[in-house]
Sequence to fold (296 residues):
Amino acid sequence: AQQLSIEGGGTIDGSGDNPHWKGKERTRPMAVFVTLSDGVTIRNLSVKDAGMWGVVAMESDHVLISRLDVRSPFGPTRDGIDIVDCHHVLIENCRVYSEDDSICLKSGSAKGVFDVTVRDCHVLRSSVANALKLGTASTGSFKKILFENIVIDGADKAAMAVESVDGADIDDVRFENIRFRDAGTAVFVLLGRRGKPARLGSIQNVSFANVRGETRHTWGSAISGTLLDGRAYRPRNLSFDDVHVKSRGGLKAAAAARSASPPATPARRSCAKTSRDIPPSKVREIRHHKPLTLFC
Fold:
């Protein structure tokens, strides 16, 4: 479609608690799904109880998503807002409560994701996953991405996650003015490989600035490249400026000793819960990375 608008102040109810929508992902409907379109506006709506992902734009350009209240609480794989292989997207002034990832950028094709801004949004909770995320589906590139002025009240895994595990090149990603609480961990960054893409991807030029938050678990923030056939593949040029994270303590001495040097992140692993707890005194666990800039 061209110049498509869905707006008006009403409610779209996906009946996500219906027993028919408890099966495999491919059998369950999205609440709002727009694809192969240009000039899309989705605005001033309540979207509730999706059978699958809540609000989805796929392979579309010039997309505005504004003033939505999205609530998808019924079971895993119920994402809030998903942007899949889109260019020139603005998401603003939205509230999201989701079982799975709350605001997620994905790529399943060579088109990739380009020029996306997410601003002035409130993540009420991601019950089993991440609040703000790139990936896990990561075939095409992610470039020129900005998350700014975001409040996160809960995320079981990471407040902010950046993952390339399907061959994507990730470049120029910024997280600015982020406030979070009750998150599993602050940051999760992974360059890995879970299938057999033509090549391993890359992660570079990712920045975190003016971030404040508190975590709920005894995990650190894992930032990892991967070892593959004896060679290290590394995220590059990550920076942290004015980042303050209060991490939960409470590990007993024996557990802390066992966790003092966690194993390297497997190439296929794509979850913010690291293989072992990381002592809160570490806060960040950094593997196979260069260079890294910290101004905290």
